Prior knowledge:
In chain A, strand 4 (61-68) and strand 5 (71-72) form a beta hairpin. The N and C termini of chain A lie far apart (39 Å). Chain A is of the alpha/beta class and 269 residues long. The longest helix of chain A has 21 residues, at 246-266. Chain A contains 9 helices and 10 strands. Chain B is an all-alpha fold and 261 residues long. In chain B, 85% of the residues lie in helices and 0% in strands. Chain A binds chain B through residues 50, 53-55, 80, 83-84, 87-90, 92, 94, 96, 98-102, 109-110, 112-114, 141, 143, 161, and chain B through 150, 152-153, 155-162, 166, 170-171, 174, 178, 249, 251-253.
Amino acid sequence: MSNSEAIILENLYLEYPGLKVLENVNLKIRDGEVIAVIGPSGCGKTTMAHLILGLIPPNVSIRGRIMVYGIDVLSNVGVKTLYREIGVGYVSQVDTLLPWRTLIDNLMLPLQIRGIPRREALEMAKSLLELVSLNGFEKFYPHQLSGGMRQRAQLARALITSPKLLVMDEPFGALDALTRINLQGHLSQLISKLGSTVIFITHDIEEAITIGTRIIVMSRRPGTIKASIAVEEPHPRDPFKVRASKYSQDLKEKLLEILSGELTAYGED
Amino acid sequence: MGRIRESIVVNIYRVILLVVLILLWEYSSDRYISSLIIGKPSLIAQKLYSYVLSRLFIEDLSFTLQATFSGLILGILGGVAFGVAFSYFKLFARVVEPFIVAINSLPRPAIAPLFVTWLGFGVLSKTMVAFSIVFFIAFFNTINGIASINPELIKAVRVMGASRIQLMRYVIIPSILTWVFAAFKTSVGFALIGAIIGEFVGSTRGLGYRMLILSGYFDTSGVFALLILLMILGYSIVKISEKIENIILRWRPQALTFSFL
C-alpha cells in the first residue's frame, strides 16, 4: 500500500439474509480526495459508507477487506483506533444532534468524549460555530433551529476533531433546493480549507459534480462500482457557476447516460 | 379576548356550583341524613382548622411525606437500574420476565401486610409499599425508553469514539430520562397512594393512619377533613413535579410536551 492511499476497498461483498447488497466493490481513495458517490436508491451507498466507518449492520455476511489509513475497520480492534486516533467525522441525512443538548454542548460532545478540558473544548466549539456561521445560536436547542442550520451544526460537530476522514451520507437530502445549493457552496469552502478525505453520498447529479473531485457511480443492487470520473475543478467552487459551466453540462450528460442504464432495470424491481 | 372572558365565566360557574353543593350538604346534614354518615361542612372546617394547627398534623404530614418521597426516589432509581439491566442482558431478561409480570400483577394492598410484618409499623414499611408501585412504573418506562432510543444517535456518537460507558452517559441515559420524567408525575401520585395504603395496614402515624382512626370513631367530618388535606397534598405535589418536569425537559419541543400530558 502506498502512503497516498487513504482508503482501500477490496472485493467487498455484503449480504443481508436473502438480499445481496454489495458485490465485488473495489475502490482506492487517495488522501485528500473528495469522492462523491452516486447511484440509484437502494444500491448500497449508505451501507458502503457505514462499513467504511466501521458501522457493521447486524445479521449480515461480509467478505473482503476495508483499510482506512492502514486500519482494518472490519475488525473490532480496528474501529477503536479509527475513531480515537485517525478520527472520522460523520454527517447523516437525519439530524443526529442530541435533542437534549444545546448547540454548543452538541458541538463539544466529541471533545468531551476524548477527555479534552471543558474550557478548551468551548473555545474550539465556538470557533467552529463561527466557521459554519452559527455564532449567536450557542444556547439554542436543536428543535429551535431550521433544517439547514441543523445540518451545518452537524457538519461543525463532525469537523471539530479535525478528522482525517469525513463521511457525509446525503447530508443535504432533506433540505429545500436553495438551502442545499447554499450549503454546497459552504461545504466547498470548507473542503478547500481543511484537506481531509471526504466521502460524500448523494442521489443528486449536480450535487455530485459540485462537491466531488472524483465521482463514483454505483450500479443498481447488488451495488458495484460502474464508473469513476475525475472532476478537475479545484475547490472552493461556486455551486451556481458549476451548474452553468460547460464541463458540468457535459459531465451531467455523461453521468445520466451511465445511470439511466441502471435506472431502467431497477424500475422492474 | 373571547377566550379569556369564557374562562372567567367558566370559573364563576365552578365557584357557584361548589358553593351550592356545600350549602346543600350543610342543609341536608342532620336534617335529612345523619352527620355521622355524611359529615357536615361546618364541622369539617372546624376539624380541619384545629387539626392543621396541631402538632399532630406536622408529625403525620412529615411521616407520610417521608414515606412517599423515599418510596418515590428508591422506586425510580431501582426501576431504572433494573430496566437498564433488563435491556442489556438478554438472558437475564428472559429469565426474570415472568416473575416481574407476576409480581406486578399483585394488588399492592394485598402485599402491604407482609411489608408491615417484615419492616414494622414505622416509616420503612410504607416506603416499601410506595416503592413497590413506583418501581414498576419506572421499570416499564425505562424499557420503553431504551426501545425508543434513536439508533442514528447511537451511530453518530459511536463514530465519535465513545466507549460503552460514554454511550450510556451521553445517549442512553438521557433518552431514558425523558421517559422516566414523562412518568414522574404519575409516579408521585402513586407513591402517595402507596404510602397511604401502608398506613392503612399498620401504622402509628401518618395522614392515612389518622384518617383510619377517625373513621373508627365514626368521626365522618374528621375523615372528610383528612380527605381534603390529602387532596390538597396530592394536587400540590403533582403540580410541583409538573414544574420540575418542565424545567428538566425544557429542551423538548412544546408540541411534544403536551402530547405527554
